[in-house]
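#struct-help
A.M.: can someone run this one for me? Single chain, 199 residues.
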Amino acid sequence: METTIIARQPAAPTQCTTTAKNNTADERLVKLCLEGNQTAWNRFMADYSAIINHAVSWTLNHHGASTAAKDDVVQDIFFRLIKSECKLLQSWDSSRGSLKTWLAVVSRSAAIDFIRTDRTYLYDAIDEQPELSTEMSNLLDLPEVPFHILSTRQKSVLRCLYGEELTAVEAAQKLDIHPQTVRSIHHTALQKLRATMFH
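D.P.: on it. Structure tokens below:
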């Protein structure tokens, strides 16, 4: 009697397949965001806000820092993702890791930078090429950001902090107001933008 040998097939690499599919979907989403698709950007924020919030909160807590500025750190990350024609977002390489992992790394870098520089409402560049700092002045011209809802003073403060990369103290000297007033105006402006963009 002839014996039939059934060879066991190796288990399919389901995890790698799933990761590849997720990366492909993320690549499509990011591509649409880079093309200026507002619906895609809204979905991006809805899908990944929780990841960014968690990474920032965990990092601040882990280093014993106050989480009071968490929302502003998160807002700053979103600003940097879309500024200068989304060059930070463009730097994500799907072949090196998932979008979730990359965003978590970017978010931790932002939180650590906040702790290191001890600037209450201003954060240095996150994983960007040095030449991008010269393009900071383009931030206030981005169509995705509804700056029209801000007052003239709020716009001036944001332009000093983001466009000219001044510290709160330097901005206060330029605008002839107290540094704490700069921080307060900046915080209020971010709250207004957050309420419009994320809700």
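A.M.: thanks! The CA atoms of residues 172 and 179 lie 5 Å apart.
D.P.: also worth noting: Confidence is low (pLDDT under 50) at residues 119-139.
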